[in-house]
Amino acid sequence: MDFAPVLDGFGVVLEPTNLLYCLIGVVIGMLIGVLPGLGPAATIAILLPVTFGIEPVTAIIMLAGIFYGAQYGGTITSVLLKLPGEASSVVTVFDGHAMARQGRAGSALGIAAVGSFIGGTVSIIALTLVAPLVAGFALDFGPPEYTALALLGILLVSTVSSGGRLKALIAACVGLLLATVGRDSFTGAERFTFDNLSLADGLDFVPIAMGLFGLGEILYNLEERHRAVQAPTAVANVWPSRRDLREASGAIGRGSVLGFVLGILPGGGATLSSLAAYALEKRRSKNPERFGKGAIEGVAAPETANNAAATSSFIPLLTLGIPANATMAVIFGALLIQGVSPGPQLVSQEPELFWGVVNSMYIGNILLLIMSIPLVGLFVKILRVRATILAPITVLITLVGVYTVNNDVFDIVLVIVFGALGYLMKKSGFDPGPLVLAFVLGSLLEDSLRRSLLIFDGDATGFFTRPISGTLLVVFLLVALLPPIRAALRHRRAVPDPDTASHDTTKELV
Amino acid sequence: MSINRVRRWATAGAGFALALSLAACGGNVGAGSSDEAKFPGKSPITILVGQDPGGSTDLIARALAEQVSGDLGVPVTVENKPGANGALAAKELAGEKADGHTLMVYNGSLAYITPLAVAPGQAPDIANYEIVTGISQDDYVLVTAPKSGFKTVDDLAKAGRQITFGTTGVGTGSQLSQELLFAQADIDAKAVPFDGGSPTLTAVLGGQVDVGSIQLGEAIEQIKAGKLTPIVTFAEKRPSYLPDTPTAVEAGHDVPVQQSRAIFAPKGTPKEVIDALRASFQKAFQADAYQKFNEDNQLTPNEVDGEELRKQWTGNLDKYRGVIQKYSINLGGAK
C-alpha cells in the first residue's frame, strides 16, 4: 500500500482552516449530543447550506466531526441525568446512571471518553487499511453491481430500522417513488412534474433531508413536556482509575471490533452496535447480575462500539458511494452539493479529500477526549437552554439556510411540506430514515438497473453471471427471505411449545 | 423563564428579520437606480450556469467571470442552476430583466442537439435570446479501454456482435456523435446513457461498455497515461491536442460534432449594453491567464460575435436534423 497520500492527508488536516472546522464540528457534535432531541442527522441536514461556501474537504471534516462528536456528547446526559442525548447512548443509561448514583459519575464519564477514543482510533486505522482495498475493485463496479448494492442497502436499512419492518418498507417505497420525480434521464420524458419547472429536475435532496430530519424533529420534540432539567453543577474526578481501566479493557477491545464490523454493514451504525456490544458483555460476564447496577463494562462496551461504528460507517460511503445509514445519507448529499460524487474512484481521484477527512478523525477524537474529560461540566450547563429558545432559532436557521442553497423559494415550501410529513411520520411510528435513504439510492437504483438491462440486452439473468453483482443479489435474497422463513418456523414450533418461543424473543431484545 | 427574557428574544428575532429584509430591499433599490447610469453601473453581474459546479462549463464561466469583473469593476458571480442540460437555467434567464446584469453560459448542445431529443417545445429556442459572444469549442473523442482490442472504426465493424457505447446523457453531443458514426459505418450498436462525462469515462475504463464519446479535456489524462485508446475524434480537423488520432471525417464519415459555448443575454437587452459586454469579454479572451486556461482544458477558441454564432448554431441544428432523419436515428424515447 502506498502511504504517500495518507501522509499528504495529514498535511491537509493540519491546515489552520481545517483544524478550525474540525474543532467547530466536534464542539457542535458534543453540544447536540448533550441535547436530547436534535440528533446528528438533523444537525448535519440543517447545516448543509453552511457547507456550500467552503472547500469540500473542510466541509466534510466538519460534518464528520458532528457525527462522531455526538457519540461522545450523548454519553454525558445518559450518565448524569438518565436521559440519553442520542439513540446510540440509550443502553449506557442502565449502568452509567447506576454508577452516577453510587457517586462514580466521574469514572463512568471518564471510561466512556477513553473507550470512545480507543474505539474511534482503532476504527480509523482499520478504515485506512480497508478503504483502498475496496477501492481497488473500483473499475469492476459497473451498473449491475450498483443495482445490486443499492437494492441491498435499501433492504438492510429497512430491516433494522426502529419502528417495525413493514413501516420501514413503506417509508422506503415512498422514498423510491419520490426519487422518480423529474425528467427521465434516458428518454427526456417528464414524470410527476405537473408542468412545474422547479420539479423538472426532480426533488432536491437537501430540502427533503432538512424537512424530514430537521423541521420534523423540532416539531415532534415541541410536543414533549419540557421538564426543568436539574443539571448537576460539578462532576468530581473524571480521570478513570487504573482499576477501572483494567476492568474495562476487555470490553473496550471487544467493543472496538464489534462496532467496526457492524458500522460497515448498511443499516448498522452506532445505535445497533452499542446495543450489540452491551448484550455481548452481559452474555460473556461471569456475573451478569452486576449489569444494570453500575458495571463499568456496561458503560465502556457500548460507548466504545458506537464510536467505532460511527467511524467505520464512512467506509461504504467513501469507497462505494452507498450510505450505510441516515446520517451518512445526509453527508452523501453534502458531497454532492460540493460537486464530489462519492464512489470507488474517490480514493484515487480525490486523495486529498479522502485522506484529509479520514485523518481529521484522529485530531477530532483527541479534541473530544480533551473536551470530554476536563470540560465536561461546561457541556452539562448547555442543558439549561430551553427548547422554547432553541426551537425557533433552529427553524429560522433551517428556512434561511435552505433558501441559500439554490436561491429558490420553492425549496422553502418543500422543507415545510417535508417537515410536516416528518412530524406525522414520527407521530405514527414511521422512521423517516429509510425514506431518505431510499430517496438517495432511488435514482442510482433506477439508472443502474436500466443501464444494466441495456448492457445485458434485456436479459435479467445477466445480473447473476457477474461475480460481484451475483454475490450481492444472493445476500439480498437471504436477507429478504430469512426473517419470514424463521418467523414461519418459529410459529410452527410455538404451537406445541409456547414457552421456548417467548424465551427466544426476549433473549434477542438485549 | 421570565416574561422579560422572552420579550428580549422576540425583539432580537424581529430585529434580525427586519435587518434581513432591509438588506434585501437595499439590493433592489441599488439595481433600480443604476439602470439610468452608464452600464454596468454599480450593481453586480450574475452569470448563470446550467451545469453542476466543477464541470467544464462551470470552469469556463468562472475563468471568464474573474477577468470580466476586473475589467468592468463590478462583482461578477457565477450561479449554478443545474438541470435538464441547462434548459432550467435558460428558462430562468428568459425571465430575467434585460439589463445585461444577468447572463448565461449557454451550451451549444442545448441549442442544436437537445431539440432533436425531446418533445417539441421542451427545449428553449435560441431565437428568444440575445447572444453576446461565442466562447470556445470542445471536441469529442471516441475512446475504448486498451484490453478491448479495438483501434479503428473498422475493428468495431468487424467485431461480429452488437457494440455497446456509453454516452454522457440523452440529447448530448456524445450521443449524437456516436449514433451518427455507427449509423453511417453500418455498425450494430446500442447506447447506454450515463450521467455526465466522469461516469462515462469510468464505465469505459472498466469495460462496462465497449466505447464511449467523451469531451477531449476530460479524457486527455487517461489517454496520455495509456489507459484509454482514442479511436477517432469528431472534430472538423485534428485537434492540436491529439495530432495522431484521425477525425471521423478522415475515416470517411460525415459527423463533425462539437460542444460549443457562448454568452447569452435575455431578449431585448439594449445594443449598447451588449456591445459593452462584448468588448469586455474580448479583453478577457486576450488575458494570458485565460489563454492558459483554454490550453490546459483542450479548448479551441471560437470567439465570434453574436450573429456569426447564431448562424453556426442554427446551421448545426438544420444539418443534424437532416442527418438523423436520413439515418432514422431516434435520440430520445419520448416524442
Give a brief description:
Chain B: Keywords: Signal. The complex is a heterodimer of chains A (about 500) and B (about 325). Chain A is mainly α.
Protein architecture, described:
Chain B: Belongs to the UPF0065 (bug) family. Chain B: It comes from Micromonospora globispora. The complex is a heterodimer of chains A (510) and B (335). Chain A contains 23 helices and two strands. Chain A is mainly α and 510 residues long. Chain A has one domain (4-465). In chain A, strand 1 (182-183) and strand 2 (190-191) form a beta hairpin. Chain B has 335 residues and is α/β, with parallel strands linked by helices. Chain B folds into two domains: 42-138 and 260-324, 3-Layer(aba) Sandwich (D-Maltodextrin-Binding Protein, domain 2); 139-257, D-Maltodextrin-Binding Protein, domain 2 (3-Layer(aba) Sandwich). In chain B, strands 1, 2, 3, 4, 5, 6, 7, 8, 9 and 10 form a ten-stranded mixed sheet that branches. In chain B, strand 5 (163-167), helix 7 and strand 6 form a beta-alpha-beta unit. The longest helix of chain B has 32 residues, at 3-34. The A-B interface holds A 138-143, 183-190, 197, 200-201, 338-341, 345, 386, 388-389, 392, 396, 400, 406-407, 447, 451, 454-455, 457 and B 1, 6, 9, 13, 16, 20, 52-55, 79, 81-84, 87-88, 91, 117-119, 122, 162, 164, 169-171, 190-195, 198-199, 202-203, 205-209, 332-334.
Average pLDDT for all residues of chain A: 83
Number of self-contained structural domains of chain B: 2
* Overall helicity of chain B: 40-55%
Task: Summarize the biggest pleated sheet of chain A.
Answer: 2 strands, antiparallel
The class by helix and strand makeup of chain B works out as alpha/beta
Total helix count of chain B?
12
